[in-house]
Amino acid sequence: MKNKLFLLTFSLWCFYTLAQEKKALNITRTATPPKIDGILNDEAWINAEEAKDFIQFRPEMGITETPETRTVVKITYDDYAIYVAAYLYDNPKKIMRQLTSRDNFGESDFFGFILNPNNDGQNNTEFFVFSSGTQADAIESPGIGEDFSWNAVWDSAVKIVDDGWIVEMKIPYRTLRFSNQVAPTWGLQMHRHIHRDRSQYTWNPIDVTKGSFGIYNGELKGLTNLNPPTRLTLYPFISGVVNSFEGETETQFNAGMDLKYGITENFTLDATLIPDFSQAGFDSVELNLGPFEQTFSEQRQFFTEGVDLFTKGDLFFSRRVGSRPSSSITLNTNEEIHHFPEQVKVINAIKVSGRTKNGLGIGVFNAITGKTKAKIRNTETNTTRNELVEPLANYNILVVDQQFNQNSSVSLINTNVTRSGHFRDANVTGVLADLTTKKNTYNLEAEIKMSNVNLKSGTETGYSYELGFSKVFGNWQYWIGHEYADDKYDINDLGQQDRNNFSNFGVEGSYRIFEPTGIFNTYNFNGWIDYNRLSNPNTYTGNRLGLAFSGQLKSLHGFGGDISIKPGKQYDYFEPREAGRYFISENQLEGNIWFSSSYNKKFAIDVNIGGKTYFEDDRETNNIKFNISPRVRLNDKMMLIYSFDYDKINGNRGYAGTLTNEIVFGNRDRKTIINSITASQNFNPFHSLNLTFRNYWSTVLYDDNIYLLQENGRLLETDTTFGNAGLDDPNINFSTWNLDLSYSWQFAPGSFITALYRNNLFNYDSEAELNFTNNFDRLFTQPIQNSFSLKIQYFIDYNNLKKIFHKKSNASL
């Protein structure tokens, strides 16, 4: 027993020592760069120092590699790039290597190479190569995690050999941000993932119980006299689009360019000149019965890539740029809206961002959108007129963010929207702090924000703040916080918020394991309590408490569930759509359970079952929802995923309209069915064919009689029907169909040809009693929109052009 205790204590001491002392790798400059082909016979690798003895951090910490699965890495450099050679020993028959699109990890082993030229523990640049040959890259920091929307152009090659697989990489200096350095020390980490058992290893050990991964970087030494190159890359493109709808065909030709320019060694300008978003994906539109706007995630690459600084404080919602016009239309007698534009044209957009070696980050974003007019028709004369609904507008963001202590930051952010003429202008300013103790044990987050909106009626100023304290290490963790916004706080010109006027308190606690135990690789319990009030008037609105569990078995199957309850009366001040009025519900109980089988198998399945009910004397409401999503990996090149969602709620009560001075509610049954298919055929890392299909159908069937909302928040059932009250038929039958089929060919580094065919259908009527088949037939009586687009984008590196012209100049001498 004493011997076992001694060995355990000694092992823990060894791991603690390894975790505290950073490894260092010394590299030398090469005169002859290696050929990136996955064959390690280059002279540059002969005497290079080896990085080895990787340590596992998942599922268990501190375990060393076996000789059969050891990792050996060599690194060298020259005036243009960092070069990496990794030999990953393994049984080649066991290596998982599913072909996927870029940045999609899929079911593959991978090798990650992580650099931090500032060696600050907070700003990593990550490069991943999968055993299939596919690449992924990201920027990573504690505030945003890993951002895979960031893309760089670099070279890699993979070769499967008898005793494992080999990776070679070339990381050009233009992909990194650093200043002139005589003898720098860079942060360095290397990461290996063996997918069949989800084991993960790093060169420098990681303690997953506390801190972010960046603080566990080792050190790269031996670099000398590095001069960052001129960081100028150009992405010229041409595109053509053919649209057909209701027998009319429209063609469009676009040409433009995106560029990236290194203004200084650490700051980069990103610009899109004559933007082209013709191949941005469809939004997943849903029927919205609620009081808040429906928003969608960003799909335009310029607005998703490299925006980590601009997301500080959640004040930037990029879909605002180029969204619907901000102004409404004033109609005269006998006029109707003939056409109201759904989008505003983006003329151009730029981003300037970077961070100094001392941790000071600065970001500037600017976009300009053009004038947009709606068309109005006179119903008597049939003449039309145009009305300006969005003038020339300027969107701007300024961010200053100071990082320190490898885990903390203080930020100032300002967003503003200026519209030409007598239109709405807006300005929001926020001061943010994210502070973690030096030992990475406790965290304090604080934010205070102020909004100013200039309206025709005057200026409205609103305020908001958030404060949270948490324990961020160990098995037991907790968080306690408060968030507040007054009823004038409004960030929706360039940000996104569902509502203001709240004062919410919350407490959350969790227990998790970081190393396998029993049948589990990992599991996590967490519980929470929320207590909510309005800020004006300062009155109680509701509360919620719940428990959740999630876990992964050693068989790699996952499962979990949650249950929550809103006990007592809940006061909804937004569903009535009138200030000061509220709707009461009581005793809501909701729960979900889910199961996810191991994706290592060729066939896997995800299942989620949930429900919700209310315990009220005069109300019978129940909700059942169900999702099943089987996936089939037909081979390492082809993947098919089908998803079926069913959501049925009976006895739901909600706003249905107004009648004189009365707020009308309805008792309704709602059913939603979603079918979607995602399929991909990746011929190799450079050729891929992808299919995305989605059919959304939702019906809302109201009881005949209307309910009137009383001043006390209760509903009074009447004998009056919607028709007798003079209200429109409230029943809804809403369905959409979207199909995207795309082919992408990377014909040169960073250069793509993309062909896209898409079609879509839309139907909205009051036939809520149709069954699925009849509704499907009804949908296909609607006009279908077909679109085909072809886009060619080419990557140009200024430094490569300079080399070519230099060679030609020397040849002519």
Task: Give the termini separation.
Answer: 81 Å
What fraction, in percent, of the residue positions are helical?
under 10%
Output the radius of gyration: 29 Å
* Shape verdict: globular
Largest sheet: 24 strands, antiparallel, barrel
Mean pLDDT: 92
| Percent of residues in beta strands | over 45%
Q: Count the strands?
A: 44
Which regions have little confidence, pLDDT < 50, spanning 5+ residues?
1-19
| Derived structural class | mainly beta
Describe the structure.
- With 813 residues, this protein is mainly β.
- Helix content is 6%, strand content 54%.
- The strands form four sheets. It has a 24-stranded antiparallel β-barrel. Strands 1, 3, 6, 7, 8, 9, 12, 13 and 14 form a nine-stranded mixed beta sheet that branches. A five-stranded antiparallel beta sheet has the order 2-4-5-11-10, with no helix packed on it.
- A hairpin with a 5-residue loop joins strand 21 and strand 22.
- The longest helix has 19 residues, at 2-20.
- The protein is globular, with a radius of gyration of 29 Å.
- Mean pLDDT is 92; it is low at 1-19.
